[in-house]
Amino acid sequence: MTFPEDFVWGAATASYQIEGAVKEDGRGQSIWDTFSHAPGNVANGDTGDVACDHYHRYRDDIALMRELRLAAYRFSIAWPRIQPDGSGPVNPRGLAFYDRLVDELLAAGITPYVTLYHWDLPQTLEEHGGWTSRDTAHRFADYAEAVHARLGDRVTDWATLNEPWVAAYLGYGNGVHAPGRRDPADALRSAHHLLLGHGLAARRLRPGTVMLVVNSSPVLTPAQVNDPAAVPGEADAAAVERVHALLTRQFLDPALYGTYPPEVLAAAERNGGTDHIRDGDLDTIKAPIDLIGVNYYNPCVVESGPGLPADAAWPGSEGVRFATADAPTTAMGWPIVPDGLSRLLVRLSRDYPRVGLMVTENGAAFDDVVENGRVHDRDRVAYLDGHLREVGRAIEAGADLRGYLVWSLLDNFEWAEGYRRRFGIVHVDYATQRRTPKDSALWYRDVIVRNGL
Ligand code: FCB
Q1: Is-above-0.85 flag for pTM?
Q2: Catalytic site residue 163?
Q3: Over the Cα atoms of the chain, what is R_g?
């Protein structure tokens, strides 16, 4: 299987998950510092204080990327390094780090893909309401503009937000992520303000290529997981479409068409109302963008569940049962359903035909073992191989797919799961910070060189 000639191969990471150096060079506190230091929030009491120490080791990490023949590297910028309190003058030492990082990548022939928000909101902004406050959207756009002003001469590829669904609904809905708030109305408001921030920022990232990165999944009934041709009954089909609206259309319809699906407005009506959606907001949110970034790990499996209350992460999901797929799972307990990726990409390219697509994250955690300096992660190779075949199938089916970025380059701080979940194609020994490319990294290098499987 061969990929298009200009297909972009790379890997992704995020600032809080790898950088460490949380008090260095004037960095302010983020909601993830606060959250991870509060007992009970993260497995094992882990924090991102040191993480992969990438802040100090970025040169070696880039040398490694080069050996692995990566053409692109998606990383995120820690907003509190740029504006320690989330607004006002920029901190030159914080910007200087990303300046060096970009220069080093370019010198290595690797294209930087910069994500502006991968969840590390400045704590000071959270104290003023965080994403429940409309002002945060404006602060975000100012921050984005400041970063673009400094890096825009060398960076072309920008992503505004990473996974606004997760930021809003795990951060403010079920409280599993920072800032750990639990209120359906706050979650819905946050989702809108994240979108508003996206729209305001997108207009300030030109010249450049702009994308919005979403966590998307095909929403399937249990029967559809193993049989794409299965036709669900009416109640199950309605549950599927409602959850698809809450997960994916909630973000992509406003961003690309300037409309909210009725299911989202209905959820807001039942939880705090829709007053936070002001006249003109949807026009702002519908800023021109070039690409949708798709992070795919597993399908979302649901069926009708009469009388069930809404899940805390899913306001508007009353009467829906979240089910499990009949499939093998990763160490996260996530079902492995590779063809979920092609089903998703084909639907997105049909529903949003005017923009290109890029797989901005895909990968898996397994319980890796280091043996004689090697990690024989056959299960990860199988996962990646299976998903890449589906990327190829989606392209054959006509999806305008520009590239694939594996999650992740390095084992790292996996949010509420801490360091116990390893997603890297490169193993990190946290005691010594030694990096060991796993078999999957060497396999991936060969895929890149061959531009195919
Ligand atoms: C995604 C996040 C990323 C990583 C993977 C496993 O939701 O964007 O930071 O944690 O999941």
Answers
A1: yes
A2: yes
A3: 21
